[in-house]
Write a structure and sequence with these properties.
This protein is an alpha/beta fold. The protein contains eleven helices and 14 strands.
Length: 348
């Protein structure tokens, strides 16, 4: 019988080492692996840049020490840098349990023959649900009613015409981007009785739910009661919805962003909320994170804010653990990785 493979489980307070261990044991059985654990401090300690990689948790020194002799690493946030790779020649597989392996130096890994994998789509369902939640909360002004009740007020005046909200049924909702998340949002909106438009030059119409109509962005902005952003952030889409696009939206419409902060001009959005041009907004991502105290959105009317939590569900953590463990299983069996991340891999 062959010796068990040394594996480092470098989980954190979201993708737990316990989840990684359970998922790994299902791939090859407990005799196949000899795991050790490193718990990284995210999200209790914010991620950041480590050497040349982004959005990482922990230090190079911690990872180098923990990786000694390990051939496989399952992680979400550990920093795979040039220095780590040089110090850990036994490493063969670095499986990242997130939608973009930004914490791995992919070019350096390729030069050293280390396979890096990632977990695309792990949080598609969670993010789609969060976008719908923000949309409904903003349209029906649920947070404001909740805050009034907590403060001891029974605000029956919210039943007045001028204070009431909007319905999804019968509304035109425009989705900017039709990837895994956008398609889920579209299907849910159709079930709620909305007319759904999509602006995405790369969308395959055959992959969209029946009843969705693809249109140019300008047409979508002019027609939609609700605009929800679901595009990737690329040089092409950076600043996609700026002051001019917000001004082109229908008066009294709603804007939702659970995608990337760089898609949207937040100063222009805050101004449109204050002027009354927009009815409301629901946001989970921002141009600056954490949101600074002086940000123009703070104090803007009719805005629902969450702190980049759309992908935070227990189902996502379990799914992420299963996806990286599955890559370890494929590696063990000599099969090619399902989601390899080369130097040109897209960051979602």
């Amino acid at each position: 019988m062959s010796e068990p493979i040394h594996v480092l489980l470098a989980g954190d307070r979201f993708v737990l080492n316990r989840l990684l261990a359970e998922a790994l044991e299902a791939e090859g059985g407990p005799a196949a692996w000899q795991p050790r654990e490193l718990e990284l401090p995210w999200p209790h300690v914010p991620f950041g840049r480590v050497a040349e990689v982004d959005e990482a948790s922990g230090t190079e020194e911690q990872l180098i020490e923990a990786l000694r002799g390990a051939r496989v690493c399952l992680t979400q946030m550990a920093p795979l840098t040039e220095r780590v790779l040089a110090a850990c020649p036994d490493l063969e597989l670095f499986a990242v349990s997130r939608g973009g392996p930004v914490n791995a130096n992919l070019a350096a890994a390729a030069r050293r023959g280390v396979t890096v994998t990632f977990a695309p789509g792990r949080n598609a369902a969670s993010t789609a649900e969060h976008a719908l939640g923000l949309m409904l909360a903003a349209m029906r002004r649920i947070p404001q009613a909740h805050a009034g009740l907590l403060a001891g007020r029974w605000e029956s005046e919210r039943y007045a015409w001028d204070a009431t909200g909007l319905e999804v049924e019968g509304a035109t909702v425009g989705l900017v981007g039709a990837g895994a998340i956008g398609r889920r949002v579209a299907a849910a909106l159709l079930a709620l009785g909305a007319e759904v438009l999509v602006a995405d030059p790369y969308a395959d119409p055959a992959a969209l739910p029946a009843g969705v109509r693809t249109v140019p962005l300008a047409e979508l902005l002019a027609a939609a009661t609700v605009v929800s952003l679901h595009a990737r952030l690329t040089p092409e889409t950076a600043g996609l919805v700026g002051a001019a696009e917000i001004a082109a939206m229908r008066p009294g419409s709603v804007l939702v962003n659970c995608a990337r902060g760089g898609l949207l001009d937040y100063a222009a959005l805050a101004a449109a909320l204050r002027s009354g041009h927009l009815f409301a907004a629901g946001l989970d991502v921002y141009d600056v994170e954490p949101l600074p105290p002086e940000h123009p959105l703070r104090g803007a009317p009719n805005v629902v804010l969450t702190p980049h939590l759309a992908g935070a569900s227990r189902a996502v953590a379990r799914r992420a653990a299963r996806m990286v463990a599955a890559e370890a299983g494929r590696w063990l069996r000599g099969e090619p990785p399902l989601h390899p991340a080369g130097p040109g891999a897209a960051v979602l």
